[in-house]
């Protein structure tokens, strides 16, 4: 199936495209994502996005006169499988770069493989540990969990909240965001007076939420986590009629979360998200409007499914990679790494990316929008 290239992607590739022909070589890029398993609501749109955009690029002539070949594996969210597939991509498939690591756990498993092989790796996961400290060949596209904490606490401070409860997932992402939030919460004049956790397989968080509800002085609740856990927290929170403002993380910033939690239970929840979730609400002069609108149309036309933040992470990773190959002028891993690190002003679905030797993310807090769920959809509140 052929797909029409998005306007934004076409613009970024224009200088590097040649004409497809019989003698074209391939630029082989690898991916390992959680297309199935507990993180499939993240990994499935990532896989679909990578396949879609590679088809678009090749239909338009390729990159540097060569076609892209995507070698993609489904790690099911298992870090051991992710490490195995990353090794296979490097040693057997001989890729020039790797995109993936849907979760923090799988990303952390891929990093040593990519670093040892000196192959650029662009992670699609949120934890700050992925890029802090900076590692030469490792980059990422989602905002960090620390940035999410800062965005949430800034909103809480504006509302005058000084005492909060936290209920965090014990998975890699939840544990990392919990740690990062505790590290900076005092900077906002906020105290965590109740601190609960839940496991990835837990099906009822009523006891933890009851403890928070019964803690004196709690004014709001924050739930660092991803996957089904936050949806269960949200349903239990509604069932208990906790009656306090509930904040979620960017790890659930998708329509899938609203579907899992239920629109009525999710009503009023706030979280930091990307422009992609509110594409139709962006001002005409917003630099991201054209990019997110084009990707949204392309993805939804091709798949028949709503676009998600997580597919957007893969969109931006591939755009960053292709832009770097174009500027490097060759598909050499070392040259690509240098070019990625010099990315400047690249407008993506997640924000405008400007990387440096000390910053392998290239986003600041302005890339986050504070969103609220109202009547089953997203609204911009900041």
Automatic annotation (TrEMBL):
Protein origin, superkingdom: Bacteria
Keyword entries, A-Z: Amino-acid transport, Signal, Transport
Pfam families assigned: Peripla_BP_6 (PF13458)
Protein name, per record: ABC transporter substrate-binding protein
The keyword Signal is annotated on this UniProt entry: yes
GO biological process: amino acid transport
InterPro entries attached to this UniProt entry: BCAA_transport (IPR051010), Leu-bd (IPR028081), Leu_Ile_Val-bd (IPR000709), Peripla_BP_I (IPR028082)
Signal peptide: 1-25
Family the UniProt entry places it in: Belongs to the leucine-binding protein family.
Presence of the UniProt keyword Hydrolase in the record: no
SUPFAM superfamilies, A to Z: Periplasmic binding protein-like I
Domain Leucine-binding protein: start-end pairs: 27-361
